[in-house]
Design a protein that fits this description.
- This protein is an all-alpha fold.
- The chain is built from 21 helices and no strands.
- The chain has helices at 3-15, 22-41, 47-58, 61-69, 73-76, 80-94, 103-126, 132-148, 153-157, 160-166, 171-187, 197-213, 217-233, 246-253, 260-273, 280-360, 363-396, 399-438, 445-461, 469-475, 478-482.
- Helix 4 packs across helix 6 (80-94), helix 7 (103-126) packs parallel to helix 10 and helix 12 (197-213) packs antiparallel against helix 13 (217-233).
- The longest helix is centred in the middle third of the chain and has 81 residues, at 280-360.
- It is elongated.
- It starts with a helix and ends in a 26-residue tail after the last helix.
Length: 508
Amino acid sequence: MDHYEKAVMHLKQRMEDISLRPVDKINLLKDNIKQFLNMAAAQKDGVMLTRVKSLLYQHGILSHCVTLLTLGPQRLQSNWSGVVKLGSLTSTCCVGAVVGELSETFHMLFLPSVIDGLLSLASHLALRTECMPLFKKVMDSVSLLLQAHVQLTTQVLSSSHYELIQGTDDDAMALICVQMWTDSCTASSDFLTSLSDDAISLLLNEAVGQLAVTSDAAVGGASVRLVLHMAKQLPLQPFFSNFKGLDSLLDKDWRGRGFDQEVDQLISLIQSWESTPSVDRVKAACVIQAAWKSYLTRRRVKSLRGVVLMLQHRFRARRRQQQQRENAQRWQEELNFQVCLQRQQARRKFHQKQRELLQLLPADQVLPYLQECEVRAAVVIQSAWRGFLARRRVDSLRPGLRIEHAQQHAARKLQKAVRRFLEKRRTAKVLASELCWIGQKGLTDSRRSLLKRQVDEYISLHPMPRPSQQSQRQISSPSCAHLGLLPLGPVTPTTPGYRPTGCRGGGL
């Protein structure tokens, strides 16, 4: 482990300190990275400089830089010069770094995050007129990254932060942006040829859009030179089909502004690409449409600020409601705790009072009293459990079955009451019939013997005629038995079905 790696690891440990403010982290990173790059650049060969850049990426130092670039103005505390310097150092470290196995992550994830952080910083600086030099330094850092990594061009042109910068309607900022693209295109001959069709279309829209909406000569001249440079290196004829009337716009608005030679060259190129002459009315309509679309784009970008304010207002309101709910929940928990505490204290006082009362009872009454308390407690527990089971059973039924269950329960209850009533009546009749044979309650022996003599006298005075043999056979036949008739024979008081004449239901 060499000196540079130890220093980078020490810087990483210091950055992990949570007590550091964002401003302190910016100053710490800026000073240390600048020192590392200066020491490595002092070497004769560029191997050490490449190694230092790779160490800064591999140990996550550059990731801390990107995080600080995306912070808002409030957390940066207006330390614009420091954060701009940090962005310049970050873009320098991203050029020429050899990351080895992490190459895919570096190009697909890390570099887009660096571009987004730089454009976010530039959009904050664009809202402050006094920060124009710092804004130019940030755009120079973006240009340095674009020259080394051409694939980032599409992301820059389609970024929401870049659209916000274009919506400021500041000629100085527009000139800086056009110069950035001109420097990127002229720095390398392979820049334009490495771009995709989408990136070429977006870049051409950027340049032509500046020609349509601005009246500043510097911005117009830079835009004309950019389009002319692109037209000389690329076959732009398929792309210029979307810009009908551009030659008329150049001839009408941009002649006599100090760059007539470039304007004439561009007009001649455009007219040479046109296969058929276009009608002036169609050209004018295209120019009007381009201007109108540019106006709508600028107005949409300007309205984003109001949308952001609305989103912030809604977020604060939702956070305030969440805090109110949390406070209410905390108060409810405290109230429940106080209620439980009071119940526990009351329970303790009750048990203490019970113990005092038990001390007053005689020794032989303590055990029966405790047993009675246990029985009562068991009864209460059983009642609560049965009630719970009944409620759960009722709740488990569907609404339609509940009514049917209630009707069945009522019917069973009525049937049970009716059966109990009928059983009582049958029991009462059996008792009454038994009383007929055993006599009434309070019948004396003398009275019973008197009644028996009267029955015997009546039987002797009124003897029953004896039936004939034929009558007995008829009565004892199966048909008579089927009708429930008893066979004839001597009838005595012990004969089944015997009933004295003249006796009534409850006479004996």
